[in-house]
Structures are given as C-alpha cells and as structure tokens.
Amino acid sequence: MFTEENLKKVEELKKRYPTTQALTLPVLWLAQEQFGYVSEETMKYVANLLHVPFGHILGVVSFYTMFHREPCGRHHLEVCTNVSCMLRGSDQIVNHLEKKLGIKMGETTKDKRWTLSEVECMGSCGSAPMFAVGEEYYENLSIDKVDQILTELK
Amino acid sequence: MTAEPTEERVTHWDRIILPDIRNFHTIDVYLANGGYKALKKALEMKPEDVTDQVKKSNLRGRGGACFPTGLKWTFMPKQTTKPKYLCVNGDESEPGTFKDREIFERNPHLLIEGIVIACYAMGITTAYLYIRGEYGKWVRMVEKALMDAYTNGFVGQNICGSGFSTNIYVHKGAGAYICGEESALMNSLEGQRGYPRVKPPFPAQNGVWGCPTTINNVETLANVPVIIDKGWEWYSKVGAAKHPGPILVGVSGHVNRPGVYEMPTGEPLLEIIYRYAGGIPGDKAIKAVIPGGSSTMILRGDQLEGIRMDAESLKAAGSSVGTAGMIVMDEDTDLIKVITRISKFYYHESCGQCTPCREGTGWLWKILKRFETGQARKTDVDLLMEIANNIEGNTICALGDAAAWPVQSMIRRFRDEFEKRVVAEVETAVA
Ligand SMILES: Cc1cc2nc3c(=O)[nH]c(=O)nc-3n(C[C@H](O)[C@H](O)[C@H](O)COP(=O)(O)O)c2cc1C
Ligand code: SF4
Ligand code: FES
User: Fold this and answer.
1) Predicted ipTM beyond 0.90
2) A49 is in which domain, residue-wise?
3) pLDDT of residue B13
4) % of chain B with per-residue pLDDT over 70
5) What does residue B204 show for φ and ψ, rounded to 5 degrees?
6) Residue A70 domain-assigned?
7) Residues B104/B143, Cβ–Cβ less than 8 Å
8) Which of A29, A78, A134, B149 is the most buried (most CB within 10 A)?
9) Coil, strand, or helix at residue A64?
C-alpha cells in the first residue's frame, strides 16, 4: 500500500502524461523508494493502481537494471568497471572491496550490511574510478579513500 | 608535440555553457548575469524566425549524430490537430560521456531556457526531460531549478506575459543505455520497455503517443539561448565552420587533469590532451584515443597530428565526434582488455530485438575474451571482423553499429595487438 503522500504524488503525476501507462516508471520509482525493492506483491499493486496488466509491469521491471526484485544490503555499492574507470584502476578497487567485505561481485554479506555490484558507465569517467551508494557518487577513489568511506558508512 | 597557434583563441574563450561564475546554477545569479534574456528576445520574434536563426547558426546535435538542429525542427508539421512534444535527451550513458551532467549541475537554467525557446519555435506545449536513473542527485538539482523557473514565470502559463505557455516535466529513467536511442526513449516515456522502433515513420510524424515529436540532446538545447542572444552570425563563426559553436569535451583515462572542458569546436585533439587535460601521467606516449564515447572508432596515438574535434576532421580521420567524450590511453594500455570491456558493454545493453545485434554482440565478446585469456586462434581476428561487418547496418537501431565500429577500428588500426596475443600463445603451447 502506498502512503497518503505517495498516492497524492500519483494523482499529480497523472496530470503530466496523456496516458496512465506512462506512469509506469515514475510509480515504480515511488514504490521502490517506499519499499526498498519491487516485490511481486508491489508489482500487482502498481498494476492495479495504473489499470495495466501485471505482465506489463513485470516486463518493465525486468527490463530496467535499476529496479530491484530482491532487497539489497543496507549499503549497495555499485562499482563502475567500464573503460574509463578500468583505465584508472577500478580492478584494484573491486579486488579490495571483495577481499575486505568477503563477498564477490553480485553478492550480499551475511549480516545484510553490504551488497556489491558491478555497473556500467555511471557518467563519472572524469572522476574515475568511482562507485555509487544509492544516489551518492564516491569519486576519484583510492584504496585509502575506500577504507575511509566504508568506515563512515557503517 | 602540440600545435602552438591556437593558444590565444583558447585562453580568450569565455565559457558560456559552463561559465566560471559562483552559484550560476541558482536563478538569482543566472538572472543577474543576463539569464532568460534570450527567452524574452525569442518570444518577441516569430516562431519560424527563431527556427531560422538556429538553422543559419549551423548548430549540430551534441547527442552523437551531429544532425543539424534547425533542420530537424523544420520537420515538425505546422498544421496538426495532434499535440506536439519535445523530448530532451539526458540519458547520457555512452561510456566516456559525462558532459550533460555538468549542465544539470552548473547551468540548469540555460537548459531550461533553451527548452522553452525550442518549444516556442516549434509550437510545442509539453516537453519531457528524460534523465538517466543513476543521476538521481542531478534530477533533484534540475527539479529545483525548474521550480524556480516556474515561480518566476519562465515556464508554465503565459510565459513572460507573451501568451505562450509550455510545461516541462522531468522523467527519470531506470538504468538502460538503450533508452538514449531516441525511439527507445519514446517507448520508455510511454511506460514500456525501451525497445527502439523501426524507422520510418520518423518522430516528427509519428513520435511519442503517435504525435509529432522532436528529440534533442541536453547540450544541443543549451546552445539555443546562446544563438538567440548573440545572433547566428556570431555563433556560426565560433570554431569549425561546418560544425560551429562551443562544445563540451569530456576527457578521461590516462591524462593528468580529466574532466569536462568547454571550447570552440575544431580544437586539435593533441591540444585538448596536452593543454586542457594536462598531458599524460609520467610523460608517457599516447597509444590510442577514442575521440567521442566508446562507440566511436579508435585512433592511433601516433597519428593524432592534425586531427581536430569537429565532425569533418574526425570523419576524414576515420572516426566521429559522437558525444565528444575522449578516452585517452597511454603506451602501457592493454588494448585487448579495453576492446573486450567495450564489447561486453554493448552485449549487456543490446535490447535483443534484432538477431545480428543480440547474437553478434555476444559472439564478439566471447571471442574477445579468448584473446584476453590467450586462447585465441589466428583466424579469430578475421572472424571478429566478419561478425562486426555483419552487424553493421543490419539492425533496427544504431546500437548494432556502435558495437561493430570499435571492434572494426581496433582490428584495422591495431591488428598487431591481436596477432601478438595469438602468436605468443602458440609459442608457449609449443614450449
Ligand atoms: C544506442 C544509442 C544510444 C544513444 N544514447 C544517447 C544519449 O544518451 N543521449 C543523447 O542525447 N543521444 C543519444 N543517442 C542519440 C539519439 O538517438 C539522438 O540522435 C539524439 O538524442 C538527438 O539529439 P541531437 O540531435 O540534439 O543530438 C543514442 C543513440 C543510440 C543509437
Ligand atoms: S540494434 Fe540491438 S539494441 Fe538496437 S533494436 Fe536491434 S537488438 Fe535492440
Ligand atoms: S567509465 Fe566509469 S563512470 Fe564512466
């Protein structure tokens, strides 16, 4: 169930687009912000809310990489390994993180504190290497800087 | 090594897209420096005269294809009963590209001003600004600026008392490179999977929700107020004649000062690398440069002399401007690793609609991994080339080409790198 505030936002969004189907992405974003991820139950709820088939919502959720169908760890580290980051040492950052957190890319620590993912170019090539945690970008990383960030995030 | 004569022009270039003024992103500072003056000027002109100015300025799209912007605008039907739309492309996901983000952060009002002028010129009353999902922080910055623009009467109803009204809505993507392709962007905006559409019909006839639509890149629209403010004559004289204006060049990889630099088009690549970006760490030699985002054809470091950052020069050199996101690689770079990573990206981002792209990108990556791990056969070089050639031009959208070009150019210009990997392997096997 959406909060009152989110329901109000949905009504506002309806005025912006000629069809309700166009609300699919914005409403899924609201859902992910409220619940932390997009479960099957959430997808059913969104489908009902927008009067679109469940299959449509499922299709969209599975197409876009930023909608998560499972809960992540408390901090989701998304490390860019694309060319510009690679040229500036993203491999070392990845190795260090895997060793330090004791997990591989794509995994979550047992205590659900950290999730580690490899991502494509994040538009930070000029301040590479980088990772993102939620909306926050951590740029110009070095091993020392990574250690410092991990301590701060705990 | 660097060419000297352009030094003066560069140092005298007053940045206008990303001016060096504190808090320029706030509406107060923007207004205090002549902001929204161009909008007022445009609103006093006839819409077709605004388009005409943009056309005569020779502004070409900064989203990758260098298409003439004014000409694109004239494709929009004048008489139509349907609503018309502007889609502003801020998906910015091509590896090596990070310039639109600077506009969102440092000069959002210039973009908003450009969007409203474009809407006025084409008679559009709704614009959607599509920003990639990863840029959540920048979405907030733009939304703040947009709210201020609404409050001050530069967007919304009866703009500046002119009687013209238009709305701008920010639409956040959700992580899919392909949504930067214009027809995929429209499908994504409609709430669907980001599948590119077969063209024709073209967006100006049948775009988003079946209505006439224009798609322009963020940086392209940020140039529009400059043209209106300073006039097309002035604008067309900046930089390269056939591809004029200021351009935001993002330099990344092995340079001392990576970042986004504003400059007139037509700057020598060596100038950009050495003067703007501070040269190569450890004074190493340049092995290769990707001039305009990962899909553009790679250039040899020893053949950069005379090549400039403009459409004509780069085309003649066998590459393209793309998004002007330059990736610089020093002499120690493992180019096989580079091309393998690039191919992995296109394989990952292929939407899967066309067989050559869906299958071909996967094959390219797989074979390249053989080179990376030293398991490639000599015939694999030609096999790679053949697959790339079979993808190019045979797909619905240009992602297919974007996957083929880096591989083709890498083999054409660095064949030895591939062959070294093969021969070395055979020798060790024998030994
Ligand atoms: C696979 C692919 C991805 C693209 N991504 C972007 C993008 O992120 N941003 C962008 O402005 N244009 C992108 N383009 C180009 C757009 O299709 C379109 O040409 C451009 O937005 C038009 O704007 P312009 O004429 O102002 O350059 C992409 C094209 C392809 C084929
Ligand atoms: S070329 Fe690739 S990305 Fe483009 S439509 Fe075909 S399969 Fe999809
Ligand atoms: S390559 Fe890592 S942010 Fe662009």
Assistant:
1) yes
2) 4-63
3) 84
4) 95
5) -65, -25
6) no
7) no
8) B149
9) coil
